[in-house]
Amino acid sequence: MRTSENSADLVAAEDVLLFANAAITATGQREFRSGALDQQLSLDFLHTYVRVNYRRLYAASLALDINDHNAARIVLGLLATAGEASAEERRTEGRLIAARLARLPPQRVYRLFGEVRRAGINNRRTRAIMRDWLAARPDLGHDAVKYRSGVKTAARHVHLRCPQGAEPLAEVGAFLFRPGKLPRYEHPLLDAWRRAHYEQGAVAELPFTVAEGFAARHGMKREVFLKRAAPRMTRLERLRTHSVAQRPDVDLAAMPLTRLALYVLALPFEQRAARRTELTGALRTAARRAAGKHAGSWGRVHAVLDDSFSSSGSGQKRRRPLAVALACHHLLEVLAAPGAYRGLWTSGRGDALLVRPWGPTPLGMRVLDALEPGPGGAEPDRLVIVSDGWDNAPAGLAGEVLRVWRARLDPGRRTAVVHVNPVYDADGFDVRRLAAGVPTAGIRDAEDLPALVEIARFAEGRTGAAELRAYLDRRVALFLGEKATENETEKGAVA
After folding, report:
1. For labelling, which of 90, 241, 306, 437 has a CA lying 20 to 30 Å from the CA of 56?
2. How do residues 272-282 score in pLDDT, each as one tens digit?
3. Alpha carbon distances (Å) from 265 to 150, 256, 258, 325, 449
4. Residue 482 confidence (pLDDT)
5. Whole-angstrom Cα distance, residue 491 to residue 330?
6. How many CB atoms lie within 10 A of CB 137?
7. Please, is 261 exposed, middle or buried when counting C-beta atoms within 10 Å of its C-beta (0-12, 13-18, 19+)?
8. CA 495 to CA 493: how far, in whole Å?
9. Residue 23, C-beta contacts closer than 8 angstroms, at least 6 positions apart
């Protein structure tokens, strides 16, 4: 009986790790080797399977570093199946859902509320969660202008009371449900929206995405509009609306590391070379900020970084795998002890700033190079592999090299090995692995690398299900114990 229970715990742990990898990497969008429909069907199955069989762990995954797409799907699944949970589970789920919604970009939450309404989920707990989130918004008037349909849908679904009079909520109610009834609004953005229908000067006072429509309506020249709208534009909006030949007034070093890597890779080689000092400095600054307290604590680190042709991603996730590898390169340099980092690209290039997706994936050869002792004859303390796992030159060599090396040359595990994979494999319901004995974790943003390395150790088989559950409990306690910070309206654009 004990053996049977242990086997069940092991299967549960494997299933939860598999789901965590999917929830971190998969977004239901097209990847290099699979279409969007394959991705969506694979995710549908995983979400249903884990929610039905491991509901408590399914809810606990909201406390992990999963992406926003899967966080919203988990919230929707929990709300839609509230009758399957016990009273205690519903209380815990409610706290987790509220904490996660507070961390999601507002446009994602309003989209989720629209799905809740279309699904006909209208129980008391759902309405309370939606009302509490709306009440916590720092400026509902701003949301009403920028996300008008989303706010209107949510207000209708929860029967939000918008009293008559001049108080802020009354003005929002009049703006949403009785447009044109008030001669003017006290809220500056609501009144700017009213005036923008006939006054060009009011257009620049609106959020950029709303102002664009009014600018087109008034026939404003694009250059004039962008100049006027610049003070209210987010960092990413400035980058998107300027051509690569222009130099937008943006502090690149303040951008998130992976987002910055995507920006760098979108520049032509000539731009990258000409701005080498600026771009490299920004990447290193962002990496130091992402490393935080972990900086310099990983000892000697060797990395194998995939810049093969498949790292080009897809039309929906253009250059995303390569951007993750570039961001990890700079982050690992900071995490390693000073002067103890060595990064090897599969293409053999030595200039990280000029990498591009090209050629096959000779992971096996690069792993052999990475396992060579560094300066002074010292073996690496950590080997980190950042790749989609399609080792094809020759096929399977990386897994065989790691198997033989671990069995014959390093049975004492002097060197810790971890494989982080930025691409979800829809056919395998997981990220692709190099070898059974190599811990693998999905990754979407390089900033999550230290936490993902901790998760990956559970996949190595040297820790049991009890340790995994204890880890999840710690993450949940930390997640609920921290004060939820208000998301800026622009968070979805910059994160």
Report:
1. 437
2. 999 999 999 99
3. 34, 14, 11, 11, 20
4. 57
5. 24
6. 17
7. buried
8. 6
9. 61, 64, 66, 67, 70, 71, 74, 442
Q: How far apart are CA 238 and CA 251, in angstroms?
A: 11
Name 384's bridge partners.
303, 418
Using the 8-state DSSP alphabet, how is residue 372 labeled? Answer: S
Asked if residues 449 and 261 have their Cβ atoms less than 8 Å apart, the reply is: no
Helix (H, G, I), strand (E, B) or coil at 341: strand
pTM: 0.88
Numbers of helices and strands, H then E, in the chain: 23, 7
285: its two tokens: 């600054």
Provide the pLDDT for residue 490.
Answer: 37
216-255 as b/e, with b when 16 or more CB fall inside 10 Å?
A: eeeebeeeebbebbbeebbbbbbbebbeeeeeeebebeeb
- Range with lowest mean pLDDT among 47-56, 305-314, 486-495: 486-495
Token couple for 31: 């990847």
Residue with tokens 């694979």: 42
